[in-house]
């Protein structure tokens, strides 16, 4: 690598400890003055080998470990794992539990996108959005505290249902929050989305054309930002999503080119609104009945295999699980959306400014817990 | 398209490629001849009625007596998916890369190499990706024994 350097070029380490890398990610930059010629991401700093852990603990015991994959969206991870195990073991989940899981997943999506909004603004040099985003996120986190007793690692979906029913007080708190969010959403846009400086930092920066996005296996807001209307909730409907009314939001190049950093940011903003809509519909249509079905304490799953896909805030979260008749999986592969999304960094962050690399990385919105697993 | 129809197209156009088509599992899968994986992947990607344009994941599985390389493909246009498997020897597991057909495979193959030791021949940059370069062994193998220490850092449970 050093031998290939021209005399004007130097190698610069960005990370592993860097506020804008969203965790411990090291990027090696080949720079020519302020210009970045190439970026090599180095990952693995948070590697815990969760796939090996999955083979050592039982299906039920692995649930809390999924909390710590994408730790900003534990409810979505729980949902994916629960669905995978239930599919293998052919467990029927009560209707009320299905709806409650979707409620938790969509609330978590809002929280995750709010955090992304705050940190992305801060990376562009706007400090205030961070406080605004975190204020609303705090409300969601408190709601989760009421719902399941945890603020970050929820462990809410369980095999065969959810851990606890929704109380009328929590339902009221969620409705209050949703109304609040509608008002705040408009404020957010005046603060950041249409801000001249912010637009100039993000529009036409890090453009990902649709065909490249698909070739690299990108999913979630990163893929949709490139104008591809692909959402697992619509493409392979699961849980109660077919009964709910919501839109798949895509980037349209409103401020620059389709697939630029601003488009990816904007897709997340639109998705906050869609998730608010979904949460309202879930609260309105929540069926009565039990919230948990009886599952044996030692759950032996017959030999089988399944690949279960769900739409997490960062894209397609897939659990490929092979069972062998015991209470532990033979193999569990976690297809984490951030891992695939990050793999395109070297391809798009070439011949841009050092400051642009930060914006591109922020617009991809990776969570290292999920990249490294 | 249903799995059965995909299977019909596969055996019609690529005779002798499919070793087994299993439908008894929750998700059906195809076992293909490992030396023809590139041919199968390129065919699935380009066939106008199939158009598997996205590779979701490459996975390795240690079966004890052999290894399996597993590929998950999906088509955004048609919404159908396939699971391909290739059986590899346990002594020297190796299979051709598909990272030039599906760029997404690049990191997935590196990870599979890192954690299971499956060699993807022709891969442009087959290095460890999650573990340090000097790590010994491949943790997801069933016979893996964790080292007692790494650079003087003890790994022993308290």
Low-pLDDT stretches of chain A are: none
**What is the name of the CATH topology of chain B?**
Beta Polymerase, domain 2
The SSE string of chain B, one letter per element, is HEEHEEEEHEEE
Describe the largest sheet of chain A.
Answer: 4 strands, antiparallel
Q: Let me know the number of strands of chain A.
A: 9
Which sequence of strands runs across the widest sheet of chain A? 1-2-3-9
H/I helix tally of chain A: 15
Number of domains of chain A: 1
Number of structural domains of chain B: 1
User: How far apart are the first and last residues' alpha carbons of chain B, in Å?
Assistant: 54 Å
CATH class label of chain A: Mainly Alpha
Task: Give me the side-by-side strand order of the main sheet of chain B.
Answer: 1-2-5-4-3
| Alpha-carbon Rg of chain A, integer | 21 Å
Number of helices of chain B: 3
- CATH fold category name of chain A: Cytochrome-c3 Hydrogenase, chain B
Shape of chain B: elongated
Estimate percent helicity of chain A: 40-55%
Can you offer a commentary on this structure?
The complex is a heterodimer of chains A (373) and B (158). Chain A has 373 residues and is an alpha+beta fold. Chain A has one domain (50-372): Orthogonal Bundle (Cytochrome-c3 Hydrogenase, chain B), CATH 1.10.645.10. Chain A is 47% helix and 14% strand. Chain A is built from 15 helices and 9 strands. Chain A has helices at 50-56, 63-67, 74-89, 95-123, 128-148, 168-193, 196-202, 210-215, 221-225, 232-235, 261-285, 337-342, 345-348, 354-364, 368-372; strands spanning 9-14, 26-32, 35-42, 157-158, 161-162, 304-312, 315-323, 329-335, 352-353. The two termini of chain A are 28 Å apart. The mean pLDDT of chain A is 90. Chain B has one domain: Beta Polymerase, domain 2, CATH 3.30.460.80. Chain B has 3 helices and 9 strands, in the order αββαββββαβββ. Chain B is elongated. Chains A and B meet through β6, β7 and β8 of A and β3 and α3 of B.
């Amino acid at each position: 690598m050093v031998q290939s350097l021209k005399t004007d070029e130097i190698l610069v380490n960005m990370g592993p400890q860097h506020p804008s890398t969203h965790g411990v990610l090291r990027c090696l930059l080949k720079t020519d003055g302020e210009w970045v010629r190439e970026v090599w991401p180095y990952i693995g700093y948070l590697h815990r080998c969760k796939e090996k852990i999955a083979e050592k603990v039982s299906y039920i015991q692995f649930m809390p470990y999924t909390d710590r994959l994408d730790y900003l969206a534990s409810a979505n991870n729980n949902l994916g794992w629960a669905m995978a195990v239930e599919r293998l073991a052919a467990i029927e989940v009560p209707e009320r539990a299905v709806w409650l899981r979707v409620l938790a997943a969509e609330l978590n999506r809002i929280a995750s996108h709010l955090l992304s909004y705050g940190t992305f603004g801060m990376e562009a040099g706007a400090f205030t959005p961070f406080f605004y985003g975190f204020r609303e996120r705090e409300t969601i986190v408190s709601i989760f505290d009421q719902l399941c007793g945890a603020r970050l690692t929820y462990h809410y979906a369980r095999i065969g249902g959810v851990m606890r029913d929704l109380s009328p007080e929590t339902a009221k708190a969620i409705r209050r929050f949703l109304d609040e969010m509608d008002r705040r959403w408009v404020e957010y846009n005046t603060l950041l989305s249409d801000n001249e400086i912010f637009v100039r930092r993000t529009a036409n920066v890090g453009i990902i054309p649709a065909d490249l996005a698909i070739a690299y296996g990108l999913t979630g807001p990163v893929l949709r930002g490139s104008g591809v209307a692909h959402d697992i909730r619509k493409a392979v409907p699961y849980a109660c999503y077919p009964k709910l009314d919501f839109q798949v939001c895509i980037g349209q190049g409103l401020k620059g080119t389709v697939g630029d950093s601003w488009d990816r940011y904007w897709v997340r903003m639109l998705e906050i609104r869609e998730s608010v809509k979904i949460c309202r519909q879930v609260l309105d249509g929540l069926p009565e009945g039990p919230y948990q079905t009886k599952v044996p304490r030692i759950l032996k799953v017959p030999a089988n295999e399944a690949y279960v896909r769900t739409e997490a805030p960062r894209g397609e979260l897939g659990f490929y699980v092979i069972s062998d008749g015991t209470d532990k999986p033979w193999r569990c592969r976690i297809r984490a959306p951030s891992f695939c999304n990050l793999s395109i960094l070297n391809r798009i962050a070439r011949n841009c400014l050092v400051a642009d690399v930060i914006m591109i990385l922020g617009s991809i919105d990776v969570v290292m817990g999920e990249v490294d697993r | 398209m249903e799995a059965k129809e995909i299977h019909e197209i596969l055996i019609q156009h690529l005779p002798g490629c499919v070793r087994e088509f299993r439908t008894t599992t929750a998700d059906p899968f195809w076992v293909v001849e490992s030396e023809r994986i590139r041919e199968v992947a390129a065919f699935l990607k380009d066939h106008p009625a199939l158009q598997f344009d996205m590779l979701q994941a490459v996975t390795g599985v240690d079966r004890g007596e052999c290894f399996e390389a597993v590929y998950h493909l999906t088509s955004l246009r048609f919404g159908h998916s396939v699971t391909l498997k290739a059986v590899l020897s346990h002594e020297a597991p190796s299979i051709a890369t598909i990272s030039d057909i599906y760029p997404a495979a690049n990191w997935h193959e590196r990870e599979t190499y890192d954690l299971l030791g499956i060699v993807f021949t022709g891969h442009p940059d087959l290095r460890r990706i999650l573990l340090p370069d000097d790590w010994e062994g491949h943790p997801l193998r069933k016979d893996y024994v964790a080292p007692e220490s790494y650079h003087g850092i003890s790994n022993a449970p308290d």
